[in-house]
Write a structure and sequence with these properties.
By secondary structure, the protein is mostly helical. It is built from 4 helices and no strands.
Length: 166
């Protein structure tokens, strides 16, 4: 048998040199330990600084929220106003449509329109004025001619009929 040449073959075990950087997980662990050490050193100062930054952030957030709320309120008010105007216009249209249909139905039934009624009232007023102007002349003529003036019942057209006897 031949002797193996173990001397020529050297087995090498890789050992990292002491100055190489540790893996990422170890970096994170060491950073956490360093932060904890600093927090213990600075203690209340760090907490106060964080609280102050939190308050500042909260105030800014609230101011922004107030601004957004105001803008949304203005938009909704404008939309509601537009909706109100549209609804009013539609109600007006519906009202006019209803009035027109009622007027047509009343015309078909032979009922006078408001304009016709106004014209009749005006005509009656004119006739009453003419009658009033003629009445003093009529009274003076009856005295001169000796005829009696018509009674009030005759002038107004309301006559009482005599009762029939059996």
């Amino acid at each position: 048998m031949t002797k193996s040449n173990d001397t020529t073959r050297k087995k090498t075990i890789s050992v990292p040199p002491p100055n190489t950087t540790p893996p990422n997980a170890q970096h994170i662990w060491l950073a956490g330990l360093g932060a904890m050490a600093k927090a213990q050193e600075q203690g209340s100062k760090a907490i106060e600084a964080l609280v102050n930054e939190g308050l500042s952030f909260q105030r800014k957030s609230q101011a922004e929220a107030q601004l957004r709320l105001q803008e949304a309120t203005e938009r909704l008010t404008h939309i509601a106003s537009d909706f109100g105007h549209q609804a009013t216009g539609r109600v007006d249209k519906l009202e006019h449509l209803f009035e027109d249909r009622v007027a047509k139905a009343m015309h078909r039934l032979g009922m006078p329109s408001p304009i016709d009624m106004q014209m009749l009232n005006d005509r009656v007023a004119q006739l009453e004025e003419r009658l009033a102007a003629l009445q003093p002349k009529t009274a003076s003529k009856t005295v001169a001619t000796g005829k009696t003036a018509p009674s009030e019942a005759q002038a107004t057209g309301t006559f009482k009929r005599p009762k029939k006897t059996a």
